[in-house]
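Tokens as discussed.
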């Protein structure tokens, strides 16, 4: 994948992204609503096996600095159905990068891959849900007390989806 936006280059991962990916996945604050922060070994394995080996995610690279600032989960789960998700280096939060990258990937999926549906899930009912809504996704359901957060507390899982027909209507 190779997508350019105004401020970002979205591309496949390489092992050269290890340090920047560790800055993201190794940060407890970034990972708070997902899973415990990764140590460098776990990040390297994840990068090699999932991001590169399975092509399960793409990198969002800041054009100005050349730094990889965002991890975009993006993979086909079933024929025509793709999952999307995002983690960004906290130094780039609240500047529109997650929206810019995710929207570009969604547009690419519907235009180039002829995706039928894109979905996302999160236990973060505020920031992630807000972004899902801004991307045009609609609530498909809330699985109540479905999973545990990093502190071991039971929490809800928010499920959002976007069909190609809805995307075309925007």
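Sequence:
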């Amino acid at each position: 994948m190779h997508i350019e936006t105004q401020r970002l280059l979205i591309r496949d991962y390489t092992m050269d992204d290890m340090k920047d990916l560790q800055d993201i996945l190794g940060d407890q604050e970034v990972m708070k609503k997902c899973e415990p922060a990764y140590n460098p070994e776990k990040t390297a394995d994840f990068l090699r096996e999932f991001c590169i080996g399975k092509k399960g995610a793409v990198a969002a690279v800041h054009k100005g600095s050349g730094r990889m600032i965002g991890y975009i989960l993006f993979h086909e789960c079933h024929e025509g159905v793709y999952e999307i998700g995002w983690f960004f280096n906290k130094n780039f939060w609240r500047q529109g990068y997650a929206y810019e990258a995710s929207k570009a990937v969604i547009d690419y999926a519907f235009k180039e891959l002829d995706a039928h549906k894109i979905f996302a899930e999160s236990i973060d009912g505020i920031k992630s849900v807000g972004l899902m809504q801004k991307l045009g996704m609609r609530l498909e359901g809330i699985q109540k007390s479905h999973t545990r957060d990093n502190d071991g507390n039971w929490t809800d899982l928010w499920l959002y989806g976007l069909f190609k027909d809805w995307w075309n209507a925007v």
